[in-house]
């Protein structure tokens, strides 16, 4: 279902992937710096989640300014929260690369403003922990503030997220967290000798099983 979400005097293009049965939980998903919501990895994940009973709303927000991307993501969260059509108990925020930074930033901001439980967790696909070859400057400040469960799915050869550095940040985080390494994958999740679909199957299954664990934990 295509929708246009009001954002200031503009609109954000978004698409709902709706499961057959009514979903109590949803995932909001956005892209990295260069793409849009039709980036193949996002389309694949959204379809997978919907086919497994989880509503997925993915949206496009162009712009390389992290504050702007964060503001847009926040608008989408509010939009879904107030939706009469999809009455959700909670959402997980997810993004690829820069989109995951925006998601982390939204969670930090919202947790400082209100303490409701609408946001259930964070999913970071290829979190860009540092610029290539600039390991001294880590983008970890939002992560260290977050309290809700966090899943990282990163390539072990990601030039923007050195393995030891992410593990170091994770060890300092107060949130329950899990890291799933895609062996030999780069920042774009490409792995020599594996097809994109094969890699996506691994990512999608990881995301879904983590979601299921965290939704069950909430409602035992």
Automatic annotation (TrEMBL):
Residues 26-209 form the KANL3/Tex30 alpha/beta hydrolase-like domain. This is TEX30 protein. It comes from Anhinga anhinga (Anhinga).
């Amino acid at each position: 279902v295509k929708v246009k979400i009001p954002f200031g005097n503009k609109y954000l293009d978004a698409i709902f992937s709706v499961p057959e049965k009514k979903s109590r939980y949803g995932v909001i998903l956005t892209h990295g710096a260069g793409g849009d919501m039709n980036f193949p990895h996002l389309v694949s994940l959204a379809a997978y989640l919907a086919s497994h009973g989880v509503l997925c709303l993915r949206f496009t927000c162009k712009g390389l300014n992290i504050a702007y991307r964060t503001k847009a993501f926040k608008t989408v969260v509010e939009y879904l929260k107030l939706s009469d059509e999809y009455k959700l108990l909670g959402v997980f925020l997810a993004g690829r690369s820069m989109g995951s930074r925006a998601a982390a930033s939204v969670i930090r901001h919202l947790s400082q403003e209100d303490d409701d439980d609408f946001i259930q967790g964070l999913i970071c696909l290829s979190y860009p922990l540092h610029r290539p070859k600039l390991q001294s400057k880590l983008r970890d400040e939002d992560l260290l503030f977050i309290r809700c469960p966090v899943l990282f799915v990163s390539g072990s050869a990601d030039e923007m997220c050195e393995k030891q550095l992410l593990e170091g940040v994770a060890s300092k985080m107060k949130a329950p967290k899990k890291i799933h390494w895609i062996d030999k994958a780069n920042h774009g999740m490409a792995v020599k000798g594996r097809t994109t679909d094969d890699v996506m199957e691994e990512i999608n299954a990881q995301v879904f099983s983590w979601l299921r664990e965290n939704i069950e934990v909430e409602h035992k």
